[in-house]
Write a structure and sequence with these properties.
- The chain has about 350 residues and is an alpha/beta fold.
- The protein folds into two domains: about 70 residues, Urease, subunit C, domain 1 (Roll), CATH 2.30.40.10; about 280 residues, TIM Barrel (Alpha-Beta Barrel).
- The protein contains ten helices and 22 strands.
- Helix 7 links the parallel strand 15 and strand 16.
- Helix 5 crosses helix 6.
- The longest helix has 13 residues.
- The structure holds zinc ion.
């Protein structure tokens, strides 16, 4: 099957020409075509999704995942990590047991546990009573409860680096976040193999002249990928621009989307925490930001508006998060890779989405 596109994004470069898909894989790119239009991008990969399209992944069943997945596909997301914030063990265990493991569209790349081993100083909207200091036995029970692929933790907590080691041995991505780490503590975690940070500048020690903290250390460490919520709310425009100017090429866009995303304003809950969405901005009763309602394609457009090239912005939504998820094969349209594809017109409107070479929008 020819896609009829004018160019395809292959390893960060737009290769002119059409794309051939066969047996669920990319068979060829750069094919001559008289009337190809638009761009084929690798499907978007979202590392942090709490809920979508009215569904909170805490308590979601197969139908819930199906509804959320449909909304995610409409935003170009072909792979994602359902994300569970700090919560009591029973709730996490129950939620992990429901995470789909095989054959879903969009693909579920395992779950992202955002907590519970986070800093009491940097909770954001995470409930304080469910926060825990690093606890190997608890982590083992959570890993046994479902397909955990990504854990956000605060590396400065006592025992956190031992958990980093355990998680790396199990092939689980570790991300520093919800953390009061100093730059020195952050660098120690990077030296132990942590290669990414969760929603940079949010829920971490503020950057300061003599103590740049986790954010500063991440921005200047050339092999650390920074995860960025680019919804026009979580970061001032100049803060986002600073991140891109310093770390463009190692930014992974995440949405941190909640159930209100793709639905609208109103009252919602994440893991039992109530919050209100007004004009697309979610805040809890203390007016603290509680995730976002941004759609991944909008985050891509926001990054282009900030000055990124189309190829760089699309890579930030595909190749970079795929690399962090340990699935670099999902972030490229190089021949032989899986045919998870978002087709866009020249205004970056989504025209068609494929998962495993099959049309995923109806
Ligand atoms: Zn968070």
């Amino acid at each position: 099957m020819r896609l009829g596109v004018g160019a395809a994004l292959v390893d960060g470069t737009l290769v002119p020409g059409d794309v051939e898909v066969a047996d669920g894989k990319i068979a060829a790119v750069g094919l001559e075509s008289a009337n190809g239009a638009g761009i084929a991008s690798p499907g978007f990969v979202d590392l942090q999704v709490n809920g979508f399209a009215g569904v909170d992944f805490f308590g979601a069943d197969t139908d819930g995942y199906g509804r959320a997945g449909k909304g995610l596909l409409e935003c170009g997301v072909t792979s994602y990590q359902p994300t569970f914030i700090t919560s009591p063990e029973e709730q996490l265990v129950a939620a992990l047991a429901e995470v789909p493991v095989n054959g879903a569209a969009p693909r579920v790349l395992g779950a992202h546990l955002e907590g519970p081993f986070i800093s009491p100083e940097r909770l954001g909207t995470h409930p304080a009573d469910a926060r825990r200091d690093p606890d190997r036995a608890l982590l083992e029970r959570l890993l046994a409860a479902g397909p955990v692929s990504h854990v956000t933790l605060a590396p400065e907590l006592p025992g956190a680096l031992e958990l980093v080691e355990l998680l790396r041995e199990r092939g689980v991505t570790v991300s520093c976040g919800h953390s009061d780490a100093t730059a020195a503590e952050a660098r120690e975690a990077f030296a132990r193999g942590v290669k990414t940070v969760t929603h940079i500048f949010n829920a971490m020690r503020p950057f300061a002249a003599r103590e740049p903290g986790l954010a500063g250390a991440a921005l200047v460490t050339s092999d650390v990928v920074v995860q960025l919520i680019l919804d026009g709310v979580h970061l001032a425009e100049d803060t986002a621009r600073l991140v891109w100017q310093v770390a463009g090429g190692r930014v992974a866009l995440v949405t941190d989307a909640i159930a209100a995303a793709h639905v609208g304003d109103g009252a919602y809950t994440i893991a039992g925490v109530e919050f209100e969405v007004e004009d697309g901005v979610a805040r809890n009763a203390d007016r603290v930001l509680a995730g976002s309602t941004v759609c991944m394609i909008d985050a891509v457009r926001n990054l282009v508006a900030l000055g990124a090239s189309v190829e760089a912005a699309l890579s930030a939504a595909s190749a970079l998060p795929a690399q962090i998820a340990g699935r670099p094969d999902l972030g490229t349209l190089a021949p032989g890779s899986v045919a998870d594809v978002v087709m866009l017109d020249d205004s970056l409107e989504i025209r068609r989405v494929l998962v495993r070479g099959e049309d995923a929008l109806d």
